[in-house]
Specification:
heterodimer, A: mainly alpha, MetI-like fold, two-stranded antiparallel sheet, about 0% strand, B: alpha/beta, two-stranded parallel ribbon, 10 helices, elongated, Phosphate_PstC (chain A)
Amino acid sequence: MTSSNPSLESTRPPARRTEWIITLLIRVAGYLSIFYVALISLFLLKEGLPALTDVPLSSLAGKFWYPIEGYYSLWPLIFGSLTVTLGAALFAVPLGLGTAIFLSEVAPKWVKETLKPLVELLAGLPSVVLGFVGILVLSPFIRKAFDLPTGLTAFTGALLLGWAAIPTIVSIAEDALYGVPRSYREAALAVGATPWQVIWGVTLPAARSGVLTAVMLGIGRVIGETMAVMMVTGNAPVLPSGLGALFGPVRTMTATIASEMGEVATGSQHYQVLFLIGIVLFALSLIINITAFMVSNRRTQRVERLLS
Amino acid sequence: MKLLRITCMILIIAVLSGGCSARSSSEPGQAASVYLQNKGSDTMVNLALAWAERYQSAHPEVTIAVTGGGSGTGLASLANNTVDLANASRKIKAEELAQASAAGADPQEFVVARDAIAVIVHPDNPVENLTLEQIALIYRGEINNWLEVGGEDRPIVRLSRETNSGTHVYFLEEVVRLGNSEDKSIFSPQTLLLPSSEGIIAEVSDNPNAIGYDGLGYVTDHVKMVAVAPSAGAPYVRPSVTTVNDGSYPIARDLYMYTRSAPQGTLKTYLDWIFSAEAQQIVGDLGFVPVTQETP
């Protein structure tokens, strides 16, 4: 940008000032967002790290989360978040990708043009509304269908959040599939591939990076979701006892922060531990993003090599 | 840009709120304005605030500042003469009384409302009666099937308010620990912690396995209140305004206000108003139990 400026100045002097202002604004906006992220991380670390020294390790690594008596084990909460997130991903990824493939590769044009805006409308559903649907319809249904003691379970949360993640996955994955050049498909069809072989062997691999981004953004939405999950998962900080735990209540990290932060005394142990949970959550989403970035980068390179 | 907008917003808010406070402080110029400090129990903060707001809107010459901090804080401030009115969700202790007398105060006690917790189950649950101890064992996780307390063969699903709610703490101390301060029992980790009273009522009214508790004023017709006996063999009492006020329902407590000496002037008028039908209506609206008319 800066190196091309002198030549622009000489050819179009009147535009110079506006351009300079615009460049400056863009640059400031860019730096500011980096600055904010840095500030947020600093703040998180400053408030949360003292918990590691102030709170006894036996409490942090214990079995119970019961802050008013000084039990601050993070395990039930980490486990809760992971159960709900994995459950939601198992449900949302196949359905979301299937819908995206259907819309992009199989459906006639008019079907696609009606369905895609509808799916995207779903993405705008506020999570409180989703929570209400969960508590009034889904949870009683799940209790009766699986004959469980209560319908407020990790599974209910996973279904609901999976549902919330599907629009994100469909929308982005469909865009990625649509972006694959026609010639790829035509070439595959010309050498005798069936439509299914084209989708599985050519279109999907070519769009891999976009599809992975879609999946990761969907998972990101799930792990950070708070309101709906707080309403339907029961919020009991239980440690897992086998696979059945999916059908029991769990307490997620986000729900814990949301419901307890309002009442803690600033600077208390409980306050620090809540920030520590924030750090763990931050680290988890960072890991997800970095993995996604690395995986999608490697895949694109290989696909491009194959197809060029 | 973002920063600019936020700064603008802060400026606007500052200007607006500055304008508001300036107006309200200059308005009661006609009468001598009276300033009352009211501090204490966190359980009572919302009630005290609602009273203060309603009273101030009818009597603009009176300003009542309400803060929480806990019953002990309020009573200590009363002894130190920094507040006019202390809220307490328990009776004043002997040492607090001695402290206050040493500081030249003669604390007067007023029972301004009562707080009762109803234990609720699904209307189809055949269980009608429970002793306090049975409820404690259920919430500690030692009783896990309704069969053990005379019900159907169903698992028990425990529901509770979140740990930051005053009701949760009261229930923990008085029911789960049966009022024994040495007892360190806690809620079973299986207990579902729901963020709102509505959530508890919704789940109990839908789920025949569930047991929950809530302030008496919040309970609706969609759930069944269990009659509670203080100990095995004692009569079971169903919660109601009558049984709470005559002291027979066991999970209830009085809510107090203390003054430094016999109330006079504005303080007396305010306390008299608190016992009026209008103020006691607010008590009911906030989920507490109104007290019968008393003359302070």
